[in-house]
Design goal:
Layout (H helix, E strand, L loop, with lengths): L4 E2 H8 L2 E4 L8 E2 L4 E2 L17 E4 L1 H8 L3 H12 L6 E3 L7 H10 L3 E3 L4 H15 L3 E11 L2 E7 L5 H10 L3 E13 L2 E5 L7 E4 L3 E4 H5 L7 E3 L2 E7 L14 E5 L2 E10 L5 H16 L4 H13 L4
Amino acid sequence: MKQQVKISEYVSDLGLEVLLKGADYDATFLTITDVNRPGLQFHDFYDYFDPRRLQVIGKAETMYLRGFTPRERRKSFDAFFQYNIPALVITRGLDCFPECMESAITHQRTLLQTQDTTVDFSSRTIEYLTRRLAPCTTEHGVLLEIYGQGVMITGDSGVGKSEVAMELIMRGHRLVADDAVDLRRISNQLIGTAPEMIRYYMELRGIGVIDVRRIMGMRAIKNETSLDLVIHFEQWDMEKKYDRLGIETHYTEILGVRVPIMTIPVRPGRNLASIVEVATMNDRQRKLGHNAAEELAARVDRRADGIE
């Protein structure tokens, strides 16, 4: 489902002043990250006008409109407000033209105001909407920050994901989400966080639900992190051949973004927390251009050829 943000929520989050609430203020949603400065529209050019965008008037538009007669301004605003725009925002705390207010009342459009400059306001809005409107999905797993890398541990229920995560937290790494991980694609990067309801909580079988923030302190948690690596736990299968060299990097695709994935077989006696740490450091080394498996294979080939 396409993401959307209520205009009332947007106004609250960015601290905007409401000059006039339109007829559908409580039912209006923002669905596009871009904003529009309607300079050409005030000159009656609407061929490439997208009314779904948030509309912004700054100092340049204000100075331009001051050159109009009151009748011309009213005509321009009447034509502008005929479109079902989500809202018109006036920046720099500039006064709203009387003709603008009158026309907005007539067409029942929302008027907002901010003290920010037009550039600062546009940047804040685009950044906010890019994050809020980003494609998202929820994955079953545990997300941690390990050595600066975002690592999501996946696997069947009961395989030991949370227990390993707790051991990693005890070693100084940080928990982002347990059981459910909300992922958003921002640009070409995945950002993971915990659903608000279960943030900072973790379930440990035999103990129950614990609050990691209260037990381990603020050092043990983080609100969000990029997703850099997926480690999949599965029960050890004696019939299955596991990759012993790791020359080839495997990927999984989430929201159209390829993420490296490693499959770790689980059986009694394996120190999974240490394996996850090493896997994370090894993945980071590969991204820096150092692949130990490829180097070893090259050395073996050179020895076989009599070069070494």
